[in-house]
C-alpha cells in the first residue's frame, strides 16, 4: 500500500465489513463479549463486524492470524489475559506479542468462578476444595487450552491447593461447559460472563469466585481467599487489537466506536448482570491498553517463566 493510498484508506475507513477474530470456540466468553461489543461498534461505524472463530492453542492461533493480517483495520482481534501469558508459554509463536499488535482499547475486566457438574457431591466451596485436594488426578478439570484464562486459573488452583488434577483441553470454554453440563468432566474455572447464566439455570453449580472481593452478581459465593486459599486473586480482562502498523486514524476511529459501546447503558447493564465491568475512560485509550498489555506480558513471564509450558 502506498503512503497516499494508506492515507486515503484511513480517511474513508471503514468501507467494507470488518473481521473480528475470536480466538476461542463459539459459545464461550470471548465470543459473547465480542458479539455484544461488535454489534454496537457495527452500528457506530456503519459497517458490520463479522465474528470469525479461530480457536486452538490457547488463543495463539487466532492471535497469529491477526498479527499477520494487513494493518488496514479490516482484521481485528478480541483477546484477553491469554495473549499476554501466551508469550511465556509458547516457544514457537510466529509473532512477538509485545510488538505485533496495535491495541485499540480495553473492554472489560471481571472475575472467574469455580464450577462443578451439578451432581458433584460438595455442599459448599470448602467441601469442594477439600474433595478436589483429596481427589487429585481423579478430578477432571476442563479448560480452553494452555494459556487460556481457564487454564491459568487451573494452574493457580493447583498451586494454591497443592494438588494436580487431570486437565482436559478444549478449543474454548463453550465446549468445555457443554461437557460440564453433561457431567463428563467434574470442574472448571470459567469467566463469570458465561458461568452466571448456567448457575442461574441450574445446569452447573457455582462455588467460589477468583477475585479478592465478592461479586455483586453472585453475592452468595465466597471468594477463594474466604475459603482458605490465601492470597488467591485472579481477575481477567479483554481488549481489542489491530495488527501493528495500522494507521493511527483507524485505531482512533475504532477506539471511538469502542467507547460508544462501553458507555452504552444497555451494554453496561448486560455486563453488570454477568459480573463484569468496563474500566474508567482513562484506562480505555489505545496507549493505556498498550501499557497494560506490556505490563501483563512481564507479570506472566515472572509467574510462569519464559516458555514455561
Ligand atoms: C473462551 O472464550 O472460551 C474463553 O475466553 C477461554 C478462556 O480463556 O478460558
TrEMBL record:
The keyword Iron-sulfur does not apply. Coiled coil: none annotated. Keywords: Receptor, Signal. The keyword Signal applies. Gene3D superfamilies: Bordetella uptake gene, domain 1, Periplasmic binding protein-like II. Pfam families: TctC (PF03401). Belongs to the UPF0065 (bug) family. This is Tripartite-type tricarboxylate transporter, receptor component TctC. The lineage of its organism: Bacteria, Pseudomonadati, Pseudomonadota, Alphaproteobacteria, Rhodobacterales.
Amino acid at each position: 500500500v502506498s503512503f497516499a493510498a494508506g492515507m486515503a484508506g484511513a480517511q474513508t475507513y471503514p468501507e467494507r465489513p470488518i473481521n473480528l477474530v475470536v480466538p476461542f470456540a463459539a459459545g464461550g466468553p470471548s465470543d459473547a463479549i465480542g458479539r455484544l461489543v461488535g454489534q454496537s461498534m457495527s452500528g457506530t461505524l456503519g459497517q458490520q463486524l463479522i465474528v470469525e472463530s479461530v480457536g486452538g492453542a490457547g488463543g495463539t492461533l487466532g492471535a497469529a492470524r491477526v498479527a499477520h493480517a494487513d494493518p488496514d483495520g479490516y482484521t481485528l482481534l478480541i483477546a484477553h489475559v491469554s495473549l499476554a501469558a501466551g508469550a511465556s508459554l509458547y516457544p514457537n509463536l510466529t509473532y512477538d506479542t509485545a510488538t505485533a499488535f496495535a491495541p485499540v482499547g480495553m473492554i472489560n475486566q471481571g472475575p472467574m468462578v469455580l464450577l462443578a457438574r451439578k451432581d458433584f457431591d460438595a455442599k459448599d466451596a470448602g467441601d469442594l476444595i477439600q474433595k478436589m485436594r483429596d481427589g487429585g488426578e481423579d478430578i477432571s478439570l476442563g479448560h480452553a487450552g494452555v494459556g487460556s484464562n481457564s487454564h491459568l486459573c487451573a494452574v493457580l488452583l493447583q498451586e494454591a491447593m497443592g494438588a494436580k488434577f487431570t486437565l482436559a483441553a478444549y478449543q474454548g470454554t463453550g465446549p468445555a461447559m457443554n461437557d460440564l453440563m453433561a457431567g463428563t468432566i467434574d470442574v472448571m474455572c470459567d469467566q463469570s460472563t458465561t458461568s452466571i447464566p448456567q448457575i442461574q439455570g441450574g445446569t452447573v453449580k457455582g462455588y467460589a469466585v477468583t477475585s479478592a472481593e465478592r461479586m455483586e452478581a453472585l453475592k452468595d459465593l465466597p471468594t477463594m481467599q474466604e475459603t482458605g486459599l490465601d492470597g488467591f486473586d485472579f481477575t481477567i480482562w479483554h481488549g481489542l487489537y489491530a495488527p501493528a502498523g495500522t494507521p493511527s486514524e483507524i485505531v482512533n476511529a475504532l477506539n471511538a466506536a469502542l467507547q460508544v459501546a462501553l458507555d452504552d447503558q444497555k451494554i453496561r447493564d448486560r455486563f453488570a448482570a454477568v459480573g463484569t465491568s468496563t474500566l474508567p475512560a482513562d484506562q480505555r485509550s489505545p496507549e493505556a491498553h498498550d501499557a497494560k498489555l506490556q505490563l501483563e506480558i512481564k507479570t506472566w513471564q515472572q509467574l510462569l517463566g519464559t516458555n514455561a509450558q
